[in-house]
Amino acid sequence: MARLSRYREHRFFRPVLLALGLFLAGALFTAGKAAAESMESKALVISADKATLIKEGKEIFARGCSSCHGLNAEGAGAAPSLIGVGSASVDFQVGTGRMPMADMSQQAVRKPPVYDEYETAALAEYVASLAPGPKALTNEEIAWERDGNAASGGTLFRNNCAMCHNLAGQGGALTQGKYAPTLMGVEPRHIYEAMITGPQAMPVFGDKVITPAEKLDIIKWIKEVESEPSLGGATLGRVGPVTEGLLAWTLGLGALIGVAVWLTSKAR
Amino acid sequence: MSLQPIQDPGLPTHVHRKADTDPKAAKRAEQQVALLFLTSALGTILFIFSYVGIPQDQLIFLPILGTTNAHQLFLGLGLAISLFFIGMGAVHWAKTLMPDHEVVDVRREQRSKDEDRAAFVATIKEQGATAGLGRRTLIKRTLGLSLGLAGLSPLLMLRDCSAELPGDELAQTNWRAGTRLLTDPGDRPIKPGDLEVGAVAQVLPLLPAGRKRTLNDIAKDALLLIRIRPEEFNLDTERLSWTYQGIIAFSKICSHMGCAVALYEQSTKHLLCPCHQSTFDVTRAAKVIFGPAARPLPQLPISVDSEGYLVASAPFNEAVGPSYWERDSE
User: Fold this and answer.
1) Cβ separation of A206 and B202 shorter than 8 Å?
2) Fewest C-beta in 10 Å: which of A121, A139, A205, B130?
3) Is pLDDT of A211 > 70?
């Protein structure tokens, strides 16, 4: 304490303390606000009745989605019809921030969601009310931690997912600028919903082809890969031999050349 | 202008190092070498400490490396520092402080002296006569036989390099008329209703009872089942009759180099091979629309059996996978 108090005489003491205090207050407020909003939003979803959700969803849809998807979600041009896509599709696309799209490029990208949990649920209920389709899930509904089997999930993943999403789920390139996104840091329910709805270029993996139990296995495996420490050192993105080779050829060979030059140079 | 032969420039003049003339520089070089050796010693201590002191399952987070095993990391770093700096110290020592005299060593004649050569031949002849090889022909011949045969055995084993020829194995798969399609993995039979529009399934054939599936089987039999809207097909009547309610089956083995073609883009109905980017159009019987593949993927005719499960209605009508010498590639 005595050592600390010496700094009080320093001329930067006050400005630094002020900046620190302001930063802490801001960070606390932001975190608290986000947590409160998220909890509030979740509580709203649970408490709201279906009819209100659909009504509010329709309003949000008219404001935020109808300019591309049409006032009755019938679709237009590049924007597909949303009749019969189900709440799972909406929860995936809006919950991962893919929709609304930022620009009309090849592919909708994952980004911080625009709508909160309540608004997403309202949109999902509204779209589900148009025609039946795959139902959205909550993270609590899929007990992947309890029921999933990572070994079986690995086999399923290698056979069904790895060709596009990479053997370690890191994502990979498709044609004409499209790509399969990384699966790291994706909510379990969004992984599940992607499999049953087949968003964008991804095909559908129905419940008879990959059973619901097998889907939990796959999620468990992805989560195990995600939390796996890199025991072999730097993973270099886990994308395979290209980056590894590049590093070996540039850094490794570069170091060897450096040592060789030093070895043969004459001391002065 | 007449060409002058280039004069032999002789040896360059010897430049003395600073450490040879300046005792201060020599002292500095000595300290540098000592520092390098000390660094090596520290590396060894790090190695010993990691081996004894860091638990084997200790994880540590480092920028760039991510979460990694501290035990292994510091063992490796310690050993690398320990060995590298011994070498570096030794080289630096040799370069700065070890004697720096230049010596000319003229090349010597490689050929042995004539008398040495004659003596060698005389010795060989004399030893041969002493052993009596010329007289005892039985020994000479059996020795020749045994040595010759012994030399033959490694040659004989070269036969394994050629193995058996595959015959028509490459043209055959396990798909017959009536073979059920099973999910891979899971081995469940598939009904058309199991596949939504836009769905895919990885498929292997049901093998006759008692037959175990080998990797060679999978390498030839792997199938990709895709369902699209039937009106999206752009096929001739025969190929259309090979599909079932919008479900179409292709061999998953690329016709270019045999990679598993399974990157199916639902939005474009294109199949992409991950190895060389050959792209196939599912709606036009896997016609090649990009990349090095020369042929479409073979299509398997499918229908349903009496129980409503998807089956092959005929074998493949061509060999699956890449070209090979005897393949009819028309």
Assistant:
1) no
2) B130
3) yes
Q: How many CB pairs under 8 A join A and B?
A: 102
CA distance B83 to B69: 22
Q: Give this complex's ipTM.
A: 0.73
CB-based contacts of B233: which residues, under 8 Å, 6+ apart?
A: B240, B243, B246, B248, B283
Contact (CB<8Å) A209/B201: yes
Q: Indicate the pTM of the whole model.
A: 0.74
Counted domains in chain B: 2
Please report which confidence band the pLDDT of residue A1 belongs to, taking 50, 70 and 90 as the band edges: low
Are A79 and A148 part of one and the same domain? no
Residue A47 has pLDDT above 80, yes or no: no
User: What's the domain range around B46?
Assistant: 18-96
Whether residue B226 is contained in a domain is answered as: yes
Of the candidates B34, B180, B173, the residue with the CA atom closest to the CA atom of residue B96? B34
pLDDT of residue A81 exceeding 70: yes
Phi first, then psi: give them for residue B95, nearest 5 degrees: -75, -35
Instruction: Report the length, in residues, of chain B.
Output: 330
Q: What confidence score (pLDDT) does residue A51 get?
A: 85
The pLDDT of residue B329 is 63
**Crossing angle, helix A188-197 and helix A212-227, to 10 degrees?**
130
Distance CA A198, CA B267 (A): 10
